[in-house]
Amino acid sequence: MLRIENLSKTYGNGVRALKDVSLEIPRGMFGLLGPNGAGKSTLMRTIATLQGVDSGSIFFDDIDVLNEKHEVRKILGYLPQDMGVYPGIPAETLLDHFAVLKGLVFAEARREAVERLLRMTNLYDVRRRKLGTFSGGMRRRFGIAQALLGDPGLIIVDEPTAGLDPEERIRFLNLLSEIGETAVVILSTHIVEDVRELCTRMAILSQGRVLLSGEPGALVAQLEGRVWRKVVGRSEVAGYQKSMPVLSSRLAAGRTVIHVLGDRAPGDGFEPAEPDLEHVYFAARHGG
Ligand SMILES: Nc1ncnc2c1ncn2[C@@H]1O[C@H](COP(=O)(O)OP(=O)(O)OP(=O)(O)O)[C@@H](O)[C@H]1O
């Protein structure tokens, strides 16, 4: 279990990236959802021991993450938002190199681990190709392979599906879900579907604060009876957005459907709608 308590961080330029953040993250897949600039990467880099905070604490089981960096690095797998690219190096050679850095010093065990991870990420057939020739999806899968070296108990994946085409995204999410059972896996994303499809628990972060956390299904259930829908003209959307909390506005077959939040039926042609995780996300950001 990862326990984050009262974490605060202000950057040198005065931006308060984390404001008293507390979270309990059990084993399994945990989704950290938030818009750009919410503080997700700051939190991920902090857990990954790459930067410090002004106050607060993080414990992974008995390890004091902020003060025992060396211990954390032994059990950590980290896939950063931007993995440094080494375009001229073949995938297998680079993975073997990372494995040495991770402490896999025995050649035979290392060879087995590298082969297993290349097969798992479906890169075995292209293992001799240089990284510079890989597509975005292949590079992401290579990132996962390096993050899984040494069987980490704590895995951090920062915005992994950004820029992937739908097929690669699904392949990548399937890969992640396979590893989510024995480790604490934290996945940061601004894509609601990533969380819906994968995560047993989640939190929403906005402007450095945790707006809510819990199980996606339970959070959706809390909105039961409070979401209303209406088909409107495209030009009317802005007016509704001014006068009521609009959770979403979608084009469906050339018509615009808006969903709004309200404890009572808004009248005026609105009808009850099934809440979904996207509504949870926007309701939280509306303060609902
Ligand atoms: N090194 C830094 N120095 C100053 N400000 C920073 C630094 N890193 C991040 N910030 C600011 O801190 C806030 C949180 O940024 P962070 O990257 O943690 O958010 P995020 O949720 O990961 O967003 P994104 O999805 O855009 O990466 C933003 O306002 C950002 O501009």
What does this structure look like?
- The protein folds into two domains: 2-214, Rossmann fold; 221-285.
- By secondary structure, the protein is an alpha/beta fold.
- The strands form three sheets. A six-stranded mixed β-sheet has the order 6-7-8-3-9-10, sandwiched between helices. Strands 2-1-4-5 form a four-stranded antiparallel β-sheet, with helices on one face. It has a four-stranded antiparallel β-sheet with strand order 12-13-11-14.
- The chain contains ten helices and 14 strands.
- It has helices at 40-47, 69-75, 91-101, 107-120, 136-147, 166-179, 192-198, 216-221, 237-243, 277-285; strands at residues 2-10, 16-25, 28-33, 55-60, 63-64, 76-79, 154-158, 184-189, 201-206, 209-214, 227-232, 246-252, 255-261, 271-272.
- Helix 3 (91-101) packs across helix 4 (107-120) and helix 5 (136-147) runs parallel beside helix 6 (166-179).
- Strand 12 and strand 13 (255-261) form a beta hairpin.
- The mean pLDDT is 91.
- 33% of the residues lie in helices and 28% in strands.
- The chain binds adenosine-5'-triphosphate.
- The site of adenosine-5'-triphosphate (ATP) has 13 residues, from helix 1.
- Residues 2-232 form the ABC transporter domain.
- Belongs to the ABC transporter superfamily.
Query: Major sheet, described briefly?
Result: 6 strands, mixed
Q: Which fold name fills CATH's third level, the topology of the largest domain?
A: Rossmann fold
- Rounded mean pLDDT is 91
- Number of helical segments with 4 or more residues: 10
CATH class of the largest domain: Alpha Beta
> How many domains make up the 3D coordinates?
2
The ordered H/E elements are EEEHEEHEHHHEHEHEEHEHEEEH
Distance between the termini: 29 Å
The fraction of residues assigned to DSSP E strands is 25-35%
Structural class: alpha/beta
CATH H-tier superfamily of the largest domain: P-loop containing nucleotide triphosphate hydrolases
